[in-house]
Specification:
homodimer, alpha/beta, Ubiquitin-like (UB roll), Nucleotidyltransferase, domain 5, six-stranded mixed beta sheet
Chain lengths: 609, 609
Amino acid sequence: MKHRVTFFPGSVTVEVDEGETVLDAAVAAGVHVDASCGGEGTCGKCRVLVEGPHRGPASTDGHVLACRTYPEGELSVFVPAGSEARAGKIHGAYANVEPEVQEPLAESIHVAMEAPSLDDNLADLERLRCALGRPSVGIILPALRSLPSVLRSSGWNAVTTIARAGGTEEIIEVRHDDDAMDVGAAIDIGTTTVALELIDLRTGKVLAQASDYNRQMVAGEDVLARIAYAEEKGPERLQELIVGTINRLLGKLCSVDGDRRSDDRFHADDIKALSIGANPTMTLLLLGLDPRHIRYEPYIPVVHEPPVVRAAEIGLMTHPHAPVYCIPGRAAYVGGDVTADVLLSGMHLRDELSLLIDVGTNGEVVLGNHEWMVACSTSAGPAFEGGEVSCGMRAMSGAIDAVTISNGELKISTIGSQEPVGICGSGLIDLVAQMFLGGWIDRKGRMVSDGSERFRNNDGAVSAVVHSGETDILINEDDITNILRTKAAVYAGCSVLLNSLDLTFNDVSRVYIAGGFGSHIDVGNAQLIGLLPDIPRERFEFIGNGSLGGAGMTLLSASARKAARSIFDSMTYLDLSSSSMFFDQYSSALFLPHTDLDQFPSVRERLKK
Amino acid sequence: MKHRVTFFPGSVTVEVDEGETVLDAAVAAGVHVDASCGGEGTCGKCRVLVEGPHRGPASTDGHVLACRTYPEGELSVFVPAGSEARAGKIHGAYANVEPEVQEPLAESIHVAMEAPSLDDNLADLERLRCALGRPSVGIILPALRSLPSVLRSSGWNAVTTIARAGGTEEIIEVRHDDDAMDVGAAIDIGTTTVALELIDLRTGKVLAQASDYNRQMVAGEDVLARIAYAEEKGPERLQELIVGTINRLLGKLCSVDGDRRSDDRFHADDIKALSIGANPTMTLLLLGLDPRHIRYEPYIPVVHEPPVVRAAEIGLMTHPHAPVYCIPGRAAYVGGDVTADVLLSGMHLRDELSLLIDVGTNGEVVLGNHEWMVACSTSAGPAFEGGEVSCGMRAMSGAIDAVTISNGELKISTIGSQEPVGICGSGLIDLVAQMFLGGWIDRKGRMVSDGSERFRNNDGAVSAVVHSGETDILINEDDITNILRTKAAVYAGCSVLLNSLDLTFNDVSRVYIAGGFGSHIDVGNAQLIGLLPDIPRERFEFIGNGSLGGAGMTLLSASARKAARSIFDSMTYLDLSSSSMFFDQYSSALFLPHTDLDQFPSVRERLKK
């Protein structure tokens, strides 16, 4: 028996089978409902209002949990505004890197030919190849079909777009010499957030940016939840969701239908190449590949270095034959996003020992120099991206992004100076650090309530008040526990990597911080909570969204693609799940800042004051 | 206003616009109606029976000409059985050539891999590439999608099919080790006839054969008529018709739906590669390319060496990603079929001077040796394939294929010893030669009627009786004129080529005869009519359908493909239309055997007897 479920706002209707939940229906409909726990009924975020026959536990305020509610007939579901994913600001890529344009993934070349004659009777394609100086360049059939009329109507003066894939080149378009732009898209596909830049393929200039939540979030917040979903229901739906996310971002920046010169916007057909930085699960799902085997020992992905595919093959609405290049990645949980981070940082070119930390839903750490590199991955969790924290949110308008506590008074600033609606990653780091420094929490992250109005006690569960207003913003001990787990996982990853090579943080000349919030966190506070090691401030360098930046570099340059390949080739993967050291290090790091205060001498000094 | 037209047998219904003819409707419906003159109303072959409102001249026997009849409402059209194309026998490829299998267009390789482990954590694709010894081999997305499950369910023992295109290799299928065959298709696409062989890609053995009329014949009999049709209506319909012809041939030899091992037949998906020998117009139309520009000076085709495409891109019902290789061709009227002839003959490897003659609807001639080659093309017409001759037909069951006249008595033999229904090419050569020798016609091809029952006189038009029976088979002066034009065009082409290099037929060590009828004609009779030069019999060698044979060679061997490229590269094209010599030579050759009897000394001796 089937039940019709309609979601509002948007009036999206789907049919679900008896025994499927409202959350299942939301996933099927592509409607975003927060479900941090992946539908386990534990996070309480998937609250919706329903009208119509259903069964399942009701909550006191009339809301129900979508993951615990079963339609029993035609049902209307109202998704609260707060649950709708909103676009955030992209934290720009590494400003220190000048874009180098050298054999971009797609390149348009103006070609002037002699008209044929009885004495010069080369065929159209051979004439074009000859004029291009590429006697054996390939050509796709649609371009070949248009060739005779374009060459003749243009007076043998045409613009030829060449796409590059591996070592081969192929003509994907021949057109009149017009003012159409040659645009590429660099895309960072994070588990939580997708960021996209349109880049001029001739100059390397960034023309436009957009970002949004990865709509795959309807199927769970972390990669393991996504893999579990794909394993149960196949990767197709998740592939649709990520392609849909990218297409919506493209739709924000480009016109899709009609005459390509009808307005000033880019046309989707002008996008001639795409480069993708993503973790392995996101890369596999983008290509419609089954990720299930990376969930089980020995954690083997389908591919490290995916073949270049055509945009239309995976449903992207750019030029149908635009090459889609995915940056290669080393292992099941160290993907092209990490290769991109390294590429952008330049650590693979330097003698000095560098440590690179990418804090996303997964935390990845790379240690090395131009001779060698070792990488590991830790399941950090989405705490710094707004997940698994009751008051958490992404860095977007209204997010508290900085916190100070001075003389017992808590002060906040918000993005866009808006009325605060939640706390983003940098704000959480500040908050926990400042609460710790101010004595609001102890080294285990437990609330030290003084009975004042700073704290609220609800049946023994103590929360600290971050902001009271239209919406009160509170942080509780569970939230802090989740934040400690995240920072402990990242710090432990770094420690194990160093220990396994008999090195310490003091041997590291430079620490690169990558990730969406990378350029906005306060290093002192991050050291206070033990997220970052206690080494001199000047050794830290923020590279921002390295995955996006590396995608841009590989979009624009063959030598960057070659470097990406050599980074991934030379990287050794250290599997923390098989490392006995990791659990010890992780446990030690669950304290503020760490069990072993000797590792945080400057923090110890600050705590003494 | 639209009119519905339904064709019988088959009940195929189409709608045509006011002002379109029944022949237009037949083309749109894909129903074969003979139309040798391309719808000019002159050949009288497109006779059909109609029921319903129409306008146009009616013929005496109740039939109308499809090309001159306009539907004026719902119309039923009955196509006479004789007008339906029937399959003929393929005249086998050159028996002297052993098939060489060396890097065929597609190759299946059994690969055994070590299962992955924590210490050996290469991804699936990289593991496969490594086991194949091809670290950078490409892979299509559908094959990559199936890879994880195939590798694991096969116990890391899989069969990988690699397709070759130019210098690159690509995995198009990964499957369990089964007994599925690896089959390739070699196809000769003639203007009139399409012949197909299925070939075992491992052994080179020919597994099955089929041939049929090219269904493009509904749009006219020669390449110029096809080009004119494409120019007026676009190449799409002609592309559908040739692909439909090939798919029907495949359908005769393969099962298409259902389980591939359900019966003993090949499955269409087992066909992993295709190689095509065809003239330039047929090659272009197969790929959906516009042929119009080869009709006008300077006669420039879209492409000499087409890119390898995928079967599904052009609608062929084999394995969707089977590579389709078209043998490259030199000029607008000297195509891959001629390159294939040369390849099969081996003349490009020899010191001695060879002449190659391919008699089809177009006649092509190549002169040269391992150092140089010159080629030309003459519009021979379809006389030897059954076109433009009232009693003509293809070499199929019931065709008169040999004629002798002895003591005034005409004797015939037919293919399959059937009741004769028409005369095929070899029969026409014999017939004209024997009539000439017997004094039934003079040197201009005019009937020399003795008033006997051998001849019939219909309002001053004299016909000779070839067979009287249920259906009388007659040949008239117009038929003989068309045959003389064909033979004159071929002979003149050879003469001009030799003259332009200050050579004569006596300088030629070997004459290769290619074409569908090539192995069946009587050399003496062909010399009597002046089709073949009067040189010793032992210098002639018949290579049969060289286009099909060369397609088979290039299907099976990279060195054959390389040789094809070097043949086409080294060939010079002589444009007869710009040769003042050609018209003189042609006019001189319109006599039997020739104006200049000195060129036919042995024929002169025979005529004296």
